[in-house]
């Protein structure tokens, strides 16, 4: 059994078929950025001890006036530093995920921003290789995320990625809406001929009230004749010879009493 016709679905299916598909370069770049985010978070928390020592050294070198010893101890505690790192990681992850999502949707500005972020991570990796990083094992996730960022940046700068973003930009442009057409031409009955506009029986079986009923006894000008087709015969004496029905009524005889006095 065939499904009923849906005009809204039929109008949306061609647009869905013409919508550009996500190229492999964009898909792989998005997956690489997942590796970048995870590697950066691991490398950041691996340096928690280094960050705690750095904060304590800064406070000792520049003592703050009006700050109590309890506040200084709280600010230099490991729990406070870890909380700051968690908040910073959540904030940066949310921003990166948002830019990656817009890139996957085909926004060209997001593609450029994500490429710039990848370049920044690669440059940071280069400086970290020539620096003193503690602990040493924190360099492993940092290198992995840097290589993934480099690969994602190269894929995002490819021609098919740019072409996909441009086509998606064309798809997002507002299109003129055609005027709504009437369901049937103006002035035309949508149901064709009116089935009640004509008599289904052909001619009217009942006589019209405006037509006179034929007199079965003949016309008034010829009282001795009858009209043709009546139950009393035809209207002429010669019709009996032609097979008509003769007039069987007795002729009227004058009353002798009504003729007046007889002449002598």
From TrEMBL:
Residues 206-215 have a biased composition (Pro residues). Residues 247-264 have a biased composition (Basic and acidic residues). Keywords: Membrane, Transmembrane, Transmembrane helix. Residues 216-229 have a biased composition (Polar residues). Residues 168-264 are annotated as: Disordered. The keyword Membrane applies. The chain crosses the membrane at residues 28-46, 80-102, 109-130, 136-157. Residues 183-201 have a biased composition (Low complexity). This is Transmembrane protein. It comes from Gordonia alkanivorans NBRC 16433.
């Amino acid at each position: 059994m065939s499904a009923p016709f849906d005009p809204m679905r039929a109008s949306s299916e061609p647009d869905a078929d013409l919508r550009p598909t996500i190229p492999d370069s964009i898909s792989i770049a998005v997956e690489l950025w997942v590796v970048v985010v995870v590697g950066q978070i691991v490398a950041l928390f691996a340096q928690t001890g280094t960050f705690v020592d750095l904060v304590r050294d800064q406070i000792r070198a520049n003592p703050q006036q009006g700050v109590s010893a309890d506040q200084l101890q709280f600010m230099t505690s490991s729990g406070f530093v870890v909380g700051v790192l968690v908040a910073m990681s959540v904030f940066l992850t949310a921003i990166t995920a948002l830019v990656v999502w817009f890139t996957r949707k085909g926004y060209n500005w997001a593609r450029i921003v994500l490429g710039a972020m990848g370049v920044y991570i690669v440059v940071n990796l280069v400086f970290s290789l020539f620096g003193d990083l503690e602990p040493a094992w924190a360099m492993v996730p940092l290198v992995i995320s840097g290589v993934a960022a480099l690969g994602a940046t190269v894929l995002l700068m490819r021609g098919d990625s740019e072409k996909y973003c441009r086509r998606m930009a064309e798809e997002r442009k507002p299109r003129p809406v055609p005027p709504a057409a009437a369901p049937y031409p103006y002035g035309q009955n949508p149901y064709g001929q009116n089935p009640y506009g004509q008599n289904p029986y052909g001619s009217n079986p009942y006589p019209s009230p405006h037509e006179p009923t034929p007199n079965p006894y003949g016309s008034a000008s010829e009282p001795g004749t009858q009209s043709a087709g009546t139950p009393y015969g035809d209207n002429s004496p010669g019709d009996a010879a032609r097979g008509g029905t003769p007039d069987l009524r007795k002729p009227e005889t004058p009353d002798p009493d009504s003729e007046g006095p007889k002449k002598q």
